[in-house]
Amino acid sequence: MAMADEIYKSDREAEDELEKRYESLELTREQRIIINDYIASTSTVNHRYADIAYMSGIKNTIHMLVSLGLIKGMGEKN
To answer: Which 8-state DSSP code applies to residue 2?
Structure first.
């Protein structure tokens, strides 16, 4: 699905180009480590946010289906 999305594909191409430009910079080992750690941290945060948004969407969908009567027994206690 992602590879069919033009915005995603464009962003991936830009990411690849920026990675090449980053790799060509004359940085010290310490500078590169700091930048790599920062990139990894922002990536981890963004992935976790995407996971939370996905789970929230599933939860909201289930609540909507229960409220429409399409799923029964979700709110009952035994």
So the answer is: G
The H-assigned helical ranges of 24-72 are 29-67
5 to each of 2, 8, 10, 72, how far by Cα in Å? 5, 5, 9, 36
In this prediction the pTM is: 0.71
Q: Is the dihedral of CA 22, 28, 31, 35 positive or negative?
A: positive
CA distance linking residue 74 with residue 67, whole number of Å = 10
Amino acid at 45: V
What is the distance between the alpha carbons of residues 32 and 38, in angstroms, rounded to a whole number?
10
Per-residue pLDDT tens for 47-67?
Answer: 999 999 999 999 999 999 999
